[in-house]
Design a protein that fits this description.
The longest helix is centred in the first third of the chain and has 22 residues. With 165 residues, the protein is an all-alpha fold. Bound molecules: heme C. Heme C binds next to helix 2, helix 3, helix 4, helix 6 and helix 7.
Length: 165
C-alpha cells in the first residue's frame, strides 16, 4: 500500500513541478532561440502521426495529371502561403521567426501526402503559427493547394528530412 502511494506521489510530482516552474515564469517563451534538434524531431514526428490520423480516408478529388487544378493551387499558394513557407526564390525570413519554424517547402521538400496537407490546411496546426483556412478558402481551393504543396520537392527532388533542424 505504501509503495503504491509513493508511486502515485512520484507520478504526479513531476507535472506539478513543471506547472509551478511555468507559473513562476521560468519556462522559455521567446521564439527566436534555435529549437533543439530533439524537440524539432519529436514535434515533427508527432505532427506527422497526427496528420496521418486526421487525414485517414479523405477523398482527394485531384490527381497529379490534373495540371489546371495544380496550377490553381500554385496561385493560391503564392497568394496565401508563400509569405510564411517561402518561394522557389528562397526561404521566408518572416517564417524563420516562428517557433516551431515554418517548414520551407521549396528548400526542404515536403513529407505530407495530399490528404495530410488538406488536414493541416483545413483545420490548422495547434500551438504553431499554422492557421486553419476553412473560413477563408473553399474545400475545392484547399484540395488544390494541398495537392500543389504535397508535390513540391526540395532541391534534387529531396523529400523533407524530419531530423533536420
Ligand atoms: C503565418 C504563417 C503561415 C501561413 C500563412 C501558412 N502556414 Fe503552413 N505552417 C506554418 C507553421 C508554423 C507550420 C509548422 C507547424 C509545426 O511544425 O508544428 C506549418 C505547417 C504546414 C503544413 C504541415 C507540414 C508538415 O510537414 O507537417 C502544411 C502542409 C502547411 N503548413 C501548408 C500551408 C498552406 C498550403 C498554406 C496556405 C494556404 C499555409 N501553410 C500557410 C505557418 C504558416
Amino acid at each position: 500500500m505504501r509503495m503504491l502511494i509513493a508511486f502515485i506521489i512520484g507520478l504526479i510530482t513531476a507535472p506539478i513541478l513543471v506547472a509551478l516552474v511555468g507559473i513562476a515564469g521560468w519556462l522559455p517563451s521567446n521564439s527566436n532561440s534555435e529549437p533543439p534538434k530533439w524537440e524539432s524531431s519529436i514535434g515533427m514526428r508527432a505532427l506527422d502521426a497526427s496528420l496521418e490520423r486526421r487525414s485517414d480516408g479523405l477523398p482527394n478529388p485531384i490527381t497529379t495529371k490534373d495540371a489546371a487544378a495544380i496550377a490553381a493551387g500554385g496561385k493560391i499558394y503564392s497568394d496565401n502561403c508563400s509569405r510564411c513557407h517561402g518561394t522557389t526564390k528562397g526561404p521566408s525570413a518572416f517564417g524563420s521567426g516562428f517557433y516551431p519554424r515554418v517548414p520551407q517547402f521549396f528548400q526542404e521538400g515536403t513529407d505530407v501526402d495530399p490528404n495530410e496537407a488538406y488536414a493541416a490546411v483545413h483545420d490548422g496546426v495547434r500551438y504553431s503559427g499554422m492557421p486553419a483556412w476553412d473560413k477563408q478558402l473553399t474545400g475545392q481551393q484547399i484540395w488544390q493547394v494541398a495537392n500543389f504543396v504535397a508535390n513540391i520537392r526540395g532541391p534534387g527532388g529531396k523529400k523533407m528530412d524530419m531530423d533536420a533542424d
